[in-house]
């Protein structure tokens, strides 16, 4: 990782959990043992390390782009601040978000480039970006996004098959060319977040055995869900009388009932 040559010792009192390291090239080649390990990581841990993905050079260049952008004067970066309306793209200033129900301010700043803007460059889909980000858009950001989408598409197809869904079911809900929230692969903005129980016996069984199957019918589109989460963690959207409720509204569907989420709009 460029610019980071020495790390402090990891605290001994912080709980850790070992993660599986998945070989992407083996998964891509259809290696059944590696696909089994990926499925185990996805269904038991929820996280994994991925190696041999072929995006290492682009990752290094993205860190360079980020460092160059962060070195811009704060006044310049603030011209591209995300704002308080639920947009996650652009510059995020330190102290703009609450990190808990008490309203504790975060200490993180970053630049977030929309997948849609990167792929459409030099056209604009969502917003403008700082000059240091734009300077790397064609050479760094766009190739990084394209390669990352390719990797995720391969993994999505694997999960699609393991879930017993018809071919292409997940892929069509995560189209690279439809507008969506941040990073590389999210459901398109118009997709309603729900369990596809009618398309997979495996999913249907999992939902029916859950303590509250109704939680799998969110009634929210991907855009509504994501906008709510971004908007209500912003400290300027925190109300004095309902601070904890404001923060909880920024959590996922696991913390907010569908009717509460709808009321937020």
From TrEMBL:
<dbReference type="InterPro" id="IPR027443">
    <property type="entry name" value="IPNS-like_sf"/>
</dbReference>
<dbReference type="InterPro" id="IPR026992">
    <property type="entry name" value="DIOX_N"/>
</dbReference>
<protein>
    <recommendedName>
        <fullName>Non-haem dioxygenase N-terminal domain-containing protein</fullName>
    </recommendedName>
</protein>
<dbReference type="Pfam" id="PF14226">
    <property type="entry name" value="DIOX_N"/>
</dbReference>
<feature type="region of interest" description="Disordered">
    <location>
        <begin position="241"/>
        <end position="265"/>
    </location>
</feature>
<feature type="domain" description="Non-haem dioxygenase N-terminal">
    <location>
        <begin position="21"/>
        <end position="120"/>
    </location>
</feature>
């Amino acid at each position: 990782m460029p610019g980071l040559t020495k790390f402090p010792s990891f605290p001994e009192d912080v709980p850790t959990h070992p993660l599986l390291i998945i070989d992407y090239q083996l998964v891509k080649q259809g290696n059944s043992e590696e696909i089994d390990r990926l499925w185990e990581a996805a269904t038991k841990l929820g996280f994994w390390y991925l190696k041999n993905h072929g995006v290492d050079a682009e990752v290094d260049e993205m860190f360079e782009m980020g460092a160059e952008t962060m070195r811009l004067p704060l006044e310049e970066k603030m011209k591209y601040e995300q704002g308080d309306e639920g947009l996650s793209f652009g510059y995020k200033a330190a102290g703009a978000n609450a990190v808990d129900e008490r309203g504790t301010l975060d200490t993180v700043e970053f630049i977030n480039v929309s997948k849609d803007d990167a792929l459409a460059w030099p056209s604009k889909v969502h917003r403008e970006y700082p000059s240091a980000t734009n300077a790397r858009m064609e050479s760094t950001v766009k190739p990084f996004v394209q390669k990352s989408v390719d990797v995720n598409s391969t993994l999505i197809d694997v999960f699609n098959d393991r879930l017993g869904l018809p071919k292409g079911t997940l892929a069509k809900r995560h189209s690279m060319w439809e507008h969506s929230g941040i990073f590389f692969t999210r459901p398109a903005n118009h997709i309603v977040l729900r369990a596809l129980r009618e398309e997979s016996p495996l999913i249907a069984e999992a939902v029916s055995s859950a303590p509250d199957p109704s939680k799998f019918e969110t009634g929210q589109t991907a855009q509504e869900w994501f906008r709510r989460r971004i908007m209500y963690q912003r400290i300027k959207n925190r109300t004095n009388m309902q601070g904890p409720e404001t923060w909880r509204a920024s959590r996922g569907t696991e913390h907010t009932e569908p009717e509460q989420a709808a009321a937020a709009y």
